[in-house]
């Protein structure tokens, strides 16, 4: 099939390269000329394992990029993979989606045959039908359900394993309202599902597909917060939370994944998506108490870390090494990293902060230009009064002798990965 993908960020680039890999002809449309040039030169505009190889193989053949929306006219279906950030009050900000839908609609005005427009971005229920479709109709002069259809196909890939997650998913969710849209979506995904090891295909309505994405992310975020609540209780009672969590994970109804207790969840999606579904729920008069609690627990974990530090050292004037600035290991993405609230609190308390991350320092420096940065964990620990571990990078698990260079070592481990030493004051956060 011939597919167009609007937006070439984490999701748009990954799905374009993967659709090309399973045999489709794909064109990426992005307003960013650098992104387009990078893709056309056979390189990936984002860092994701395996993506460079796919782009190198298919660019100039089944995969190309352009800034010109006219490219959509030679395709059968378009996926909208634009950012859906938060407004200041947590609501979803649809302005980028609306601008792209308007450009797409104006282009579709010139198309003679049927077209399917699929929302790939994470959007709150009713957005595709009540926001995107009307913009497309207005700009194209066409009617949804007649000359074109809309559909919804949420994305569940994770940064750091995006290609693998997309090509071998647990599930593919196809939301549509007409037989024609359902058939087109099936035809897009059939080659992928055939080669995936065990992908379930869920055919559903459009607003159900939109909600499945929020339910998925909200459930995972709430699972981590529940785990953190339980692990905090464990700590107060002197119970080893890792033994407790390993044991409950053996119950197949609970499952062993996403039981990692610690300083909490961050990133470009969980915080904004949980905030957006809370705001959307309130808009229709429902108070989502569980989700509000999940956020409250998550907000409290960095504060607990500082409280534990205070039990051992007064942060005012102390040199504190923060190990890990990325929101999770394997990425240089610092959006909503737990290091941000932690360092804000440390600076408020008068600490002298030195940060270290294997790959995320430059991105973090844009947010905190005035703290010190070290070139290695050892350099960050040298002369520090305390160390706080925020991201579970493997290299932090391997630290041992490096703690000798600290002044009276105090380690507060927000990810429970550091090897304990009897001669060091070691506190796990949970
Ligand atoms: N990043 C992730 O791991 C995942 C993200 N999602 C969702 O997918 C959506 C996209 O997220 P990302 O790919 O991370 O966003 P992103 O910010 O990485 O990429 C968006 C791209 O859209 C382009 N763009 C902006 N306005 C445009 C326009 N009018 N026309 C054409 N291109 C335009 C930008 O230049 C940028 O390259 C969001 O709704 C997000 O919540 C879903 C699953 C995973
Ligand atoms: O909607 C999205 O964009 C994506 O959001 C998450 O993916 P991602 O944010 O890339 O990363 P995760 O691996 O889920 O980690 C999110 C946060 O939770 C934290 N986490 C994760 C697992 C765990 O056990 N404990 C824990 O604290 C991580 O440190 C990180 O800060 C989801 O896992 C994806 O399915 C989803 O598509």
UniProtKB/TrEMBL annotation:
Record-linked Gene3D superfamilies? Cytochrome c1, transmembrane anchor, C-terminal, NAD(P)-binding Rossmann-like Domain
The UDP-glucose/GDP-mannose dehydrogenase C-terminal domain is annotated at: 321-420
Q: Give one Pfam family.
A: UDPG_MGDP_dh_C
**From what organism does this protein derive?**
Halogeometricum salsisoli
Q: What is its EC number?
A: 1.1.1.22
Q: Which reaction does it catalyse?
A: UDP-alpha-D-glucose + 2 NAD(+) + H2O = UDP-alpha-D-glucuronate + 2 NADH + 3 H(+)
Q: What is this protein called?
A: UDP-glucose 6-dehydrogenase
Q: Which family does it belong to?
A: Belongs to the UDP-glucose/GDP-mannose dehydrogenase family.
User: What keyword terms does UniProt attach to this protein?
Assistant: NAD, Oxidoreductase
What is its pathway? Answer: Nucleotide-sugar biosynthesis; UDP-alpha-D-glucuronate biosynthesis; UDP-alpha-D-glucuronate from UDP-alpha-D-glucose: step 1/1
Q: Please verify whether the record's keywords include Oxidoreductase.
A: yes
């Amino acid at each position: 099939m011939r597919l167009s993908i609007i937006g070439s960020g984490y999701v748009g680039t990954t799905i374009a390269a993967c659709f090309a890999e399973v045999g489709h002809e794909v064109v990426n449309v992005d307003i960013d000329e650098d992104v387009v040039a990078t893709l056309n030169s056979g390189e990936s505009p984002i860092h994701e394992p395996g993506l460079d190889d796919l782009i190198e193989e298919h660019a100039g053949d089944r995969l190309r990029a352009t800034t010109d929306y006219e490219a959509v006219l030679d395709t059968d279906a378009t996926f909208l993979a634009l950012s859906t950030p938060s407004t200041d009050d947590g609501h979803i900000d649809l302005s980028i989606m609306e601008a792209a839908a308007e450009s797409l609609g104006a282009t579709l005005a010139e198309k003679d045959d049927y077209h399917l427009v699929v929302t790939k971005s994470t959007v709150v229920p009713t957005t595709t039908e009540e926001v995107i479709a009307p913009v497309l109709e207005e700009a194209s002069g066409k009617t949804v359900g007649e000359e074109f259809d809309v559909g919804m196909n949420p994305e569940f890939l994770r940064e750091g394993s995006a290609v693998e997650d997309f090509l071998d998913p647990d599930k593919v969710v196809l939301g549509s309202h007409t037989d024609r849209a359902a058939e087109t979506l099936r035809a897009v995904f059939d080659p992928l599902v055939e080669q995936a090891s065990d992908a379930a295909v869920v055919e559903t309505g459009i607003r159900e597909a939109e909600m499945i994405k929020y339910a998925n992310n909200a459930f995972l975020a709430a699972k981590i917060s529940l785990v953190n609540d339980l692990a905090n209780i464990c700590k107060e009672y002197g119970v080893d939370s890792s033994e407790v969590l390993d044991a409950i994970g053996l119950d197949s109804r609970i499952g062993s994944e996403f039981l990692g207790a610690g300083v909490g969840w961050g990133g470009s999606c969980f915080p904004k998506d949980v905030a957006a579904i809370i705001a959307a729920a309130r808009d229709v008069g429902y108070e989502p108490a569980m989700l509000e609690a999940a956020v409250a627990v998550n907000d409290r974990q960095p504060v607990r870390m500082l409280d534990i530090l205070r039990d051992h050292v007064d942060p005012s004037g102390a040199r504190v090494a923060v190990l890990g600035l990325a929101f999770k290991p394997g990425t240089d993405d610092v959006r909503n990293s737990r290091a941000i609230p932690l360092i804000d609190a440390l600076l408020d308390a008068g600490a002298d902060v030195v940060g270290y991350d294997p790959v995320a320092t430059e991105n973090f420096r844009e947010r905190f230009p005035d703290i010190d940065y070290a070139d290695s964990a050892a350099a960050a620990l040298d002369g520090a009064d305390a160390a706080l571990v925020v991201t579970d990078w493997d290299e932090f698990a391997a630290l041992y002798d490096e703690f000798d260079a600290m002044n009276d070592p105090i380690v507060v481990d927000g990810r429970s990965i550091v090897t304990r030493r009897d001669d060091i004051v070691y506190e796990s956060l949970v």
